[in-house]
Amino acid sequence: MAGQTRFDSLGELLDALEAQARDEDGLGISSLTQLAGQNAFGPAILLPGLIALSPLSGIPTIPSLIGAIVTLVAGQLLLGRSSIWLPKRLESARLDRGKFDRAMRFVRPVSRWIDTVSGPRFAFATREWAMRGAALICVIVAATMPPLEILPFLATLAGLVLTIFGLAITLRDGLLMLIGLGVFLSGVGAGLWLWQG
């Protein structure tokens, strides 16, 4: 399934992931990154972002791991790479079929709602300069995640920013890109206010 497949909805992405999981009796990270060539950058940011939004972000070391993965992936998008490189150990990680299926039962209803409110639009905000800007913001946000392990609410906010940008990149949704920028700037403003207070 490698190539330059473009996903116009989150449902299409999940369909592709499920087909890959059936073929492999599970889903490896390497399969995700090979699924769509350069277009795999969005999903590779989106999925860690969703984990950061979940209760799993409260488990020690999880935010740091998410931060490392997103920094690695978004950093390569920022540098203009056409495909994702991952270290051997990370590339070999995989989710078994049972856990994948349980995750899909949770994600599918959410994806149907997301697909009703998102899609390709505001093309000017999805051009290369915008993608690289989004990647830079994701790197900045990911770099803050290790120290946020002691502040779960802030880790969740970081996960929200990553999820929005991951969706925007995956679906080429310029409105989501602008919303992600607004959420990021709001978070920066709130952080400065708390710092000065």
Description:
This protein has 197 residues and is mainly alpha-helical. The protein has one domain (10-196). It has helices at residues 10-24, 29-34, 41-53, 62-78, 88-91, 97-117, 128-143, 152-171, 174-196, and strands spanning 26-28, 94-96. Helix 1 runs antiparallel to helix 6, helix 4 packs antiparallel against helix 7 (128-143) and helix 8 packs antiparallel against helix 9. The longest helix has 23 residues, at 174-196. It comes from Aureimonas frigidaquae. Keywords: Membrane, Transmembrane, Transmembrane helix. This is ABC transporter permease.
| Category by helix and strand content | mainly alpha
Indicate the proportion of strand residues.
under 5%
Q: Show unreliable segments.
A: none
Major sheet strand order: 1-2
Number of β-strand runs: 2
Topology pattern, helix = H, strand = E: HEHHHHEHHHH
Q: Between the first and last Cα atoms, what is the distance in angstroms?
A: 52 Å
Rg on CA atoms, Å: 16 Å
Q: Helix coverage percent of residues?
A: 55-70%
| Mean model confidence by pLDDT | 82
Q: Specify the oligomeric state.
A: single chain
Keywords: Membrane, Transmembrane, Transmembrane helix
Organism: Aureimonas frigidaquae
Pfam family, one: ExoD
Protein name: ABC transporter permease
